[in-house]
Fold this protein.
Amino acid sequence: MAPETPRQTLTEGNDSAPTTKQDQVLLKDELLTAISTKVTELIQPLQTQLNELVKDLRDTSKIAENTAELALTMQDDIKTLRSSEQQHTHRPIALENRWRSLNLKFRGLDEGLEEEIKVQVLLDLSAETLDKRRSLKFIASKLFHANIRFRWSPTSDINVYRNGLLHQASDVTTGKALLNSLGLKLIAEEEHTLLTS
């Protein structure tokens, strides 16, 4: 839309005639109004689009916040489930070992032999317990040779009581930490043996 042409105060055919100050002020006001109207017409669609973008951004922000809260809640649930899983995994093994502890295995005893023989009496332990003890055998051996008393827990962790504190080893990594905390250093060859066992 073209701006309105300013009205002329002089005769229409005379373009070179001087205009008055009042005509110039009116012309200026009319031009400003026309420019303002045109700018407003051009900006209106942009303002609408900008408002829509702001609304979409707020919605996206709310969705992101809700998703972050849900992720944190799910992480807490996963930690709880892992903890529960560990407890439920160790419990049956401990119960089986307690039940089996009433059983005894005799090695070296053959029926019908009348000569003196050496007999070993062993606890009947689950396969999981035997595997775990086998993996910690080097740690137990190192403690035994250093004359440090230890016990096997029902879940086959190594427990050492020292200065009123309980130190535990449930795998090779915690076993190395246990030895270090008790002042038993591993030489490179022993560390290699520990990692390959």
Notes: The CA atoms of residues 5 and 177 lie 92 Å apart. The longest strand covers residues 158-162. Residues 21-100 form the longest helix (80 residues). Strands lie at 104-107, 120-123, 151-152, 158-162, 165-169.
